[in-house]
Write a structure and sequence with these properties.
This protein has three helices and no strands. The longest helix is centred in the N-terminal third of the chain and has 17 residues. By secondary structure, the protein is mainly α.
Length: 70
């Protein structure tokens, strides 16, 4: 997340996938360079957004830190 040329399309896609997987109680994983706070800010529409509640209730953040090998 956060590398698309169309960030609104990327955000809408993420929200749709998250909602579908959440509703069907399916696991999911996201790879991103965002910090946890930046990810929440990127995908949510505000404090009352149900996506924010879903992220806060089910998400575990795991940082994988290493040197760049590009």
């Amino acid at each position: 997340l956060g590398t698309s040329e169309d960030s609104q399309l990327e955000k809408n896609f993420f929200r749709t996938v998250l909602a579908c997987r959440y509703d069907n109680e399916l696991p999911w994983a996201v790879g991103t360079n965002f910090t946890p706070d930046a990810l929440r800010s990127f995908v949510t529409l505000g404090d009352s957004d149900p996506i924010l509640d879903r992220l806060n209730s089910i998400v575990e953040f795991h940082a994988l830190v290493s040197e760049s090998h590009r």
